[in-house]
Amino acid sequence: MITDRRLLLERLFPFLAWLPLVKDRATVRADLLAGLTGAVVVLPQGVAFATLAGMPPEYGLYSAMVPCVIAALFGASRLMVTGPANAISLTVLGLIAPLAAPGSVDYVQLVITLTFMVGFWQLAIGLAGLGRAVDRVPHSVIVGFTAGAAILIVNSQVRNLFGFDWPRGMSVWQTLWHLGRDIGLTHWPTAVVAFGTVAACLLARPWNNRVPYMLVGVLAGGAIAALLAAISPGYAVKAVEQLPGAIPPLSAPTFSFSALEMLLMPSLVMTVLALAEAVSIARAIAVKSGDRLEGNREVIGQGMANLIGSFFSSYPASGSFNRSGVNVAAGARTPLSAVAAAGFLLVLLAFVAPLSHYLPLASVAGILLMVAVGLIDLREIRHIARHSRLDAIVMASTFALVIMIPLEWAILGGLAVHVVLSKLMAPRH
What pTM value is reported for the model? Predict the structure, then answer.
């Protein structure tokens, strides 16, 4: 009877299963150190991802707090860290930019509402026991989508890499045409800061386990920008707006029929993508650590993270590949590491926020360029191309669709191509 009651409580409150481990001093020490490392890592990442999502920079850091804690407490993965992610951030921009100007009050409100809807769908899927359906999203579609997303990330940052006064939202083809026309008008101090940041990241990456290379890149970019401004005021580069306070402000989704109708399709697409990313990362970590992963429980945790996060100024969060990798490498043992990361981030932000106006936009663009390159998994692309003609065509088709059409239709198009070709290329008996 007691055992049954305990199992029920652990099912409702998953953190009760790992909480006894926190009594061990060595475990607490390892988790706190991993949490501190994760907080330092997410500082430049959060700002960069929010910029990519078309949101004010502080929202990337807010999204790394409350969703991170909720997913750690109610999810199934012990070592995955939830928060802002690269492909998710870009998808937010792709889905919402046609509806409102990025960075505007209306845009932020729509994104907050999108976060709520994504959390609602995720929670519904998990409670209905349909979490396993996420595993059926073909791997070739995800690989093609992320590779295409990498190209779109670069496309969105060309203006910030070279200091061009271009409008936002240009297609890849428009960017290439404008780049060929305006390359001679490059603002060279901006380019020096951007590619100086990239160079610093590349030099620091071999020691990433000791010092986060993105943080090194941001510090180097800020130093280069300060030096150029000291030489001549004409060499000054644009900087990030000063971040407000460290505590995420309360927010409220819009529940008007028109807003919910407008965001229905984008929210469904975002739900599929966010769950596919989170579950795949969680499963990879579980295989590596030898843990057993309950898929539906993780889906419920992700749903609660986004649902609650929408009331604390978060945009859609998912499993973060970079932060989860850092968390594992730093020696994390339980979800306490993710909770600690959110707490340490809150403290760090209180000290860093007043200094944010020293962070050049070009440096953020350089970080995002590194992120984009990291998204293209050449090894997996070669593997798919060599071993399955069907998957290779699906991957290439999804990649092309991401570049050519709106994101919400690109991933659905990739799924459609997979279904059709699976029927056409199936062996006949």
Answer: 0.77
Q: How many CA atoms lie within 13 A of 176 on its CB side?
A: 6
Per-residue pLDDT tens over the stretch 112-154: 999 999 999 999 999 988 877 666 677 788 788 878 878 887 8
Q: How far is CA 351 from CA 61, 346, 355, 364, in A?
A: 14, 9, 8, 19
Closest of 120, 35, 90, 39 to residue 349, by C-alpha: 39
What residue spans define the domains of the chain?
26-378
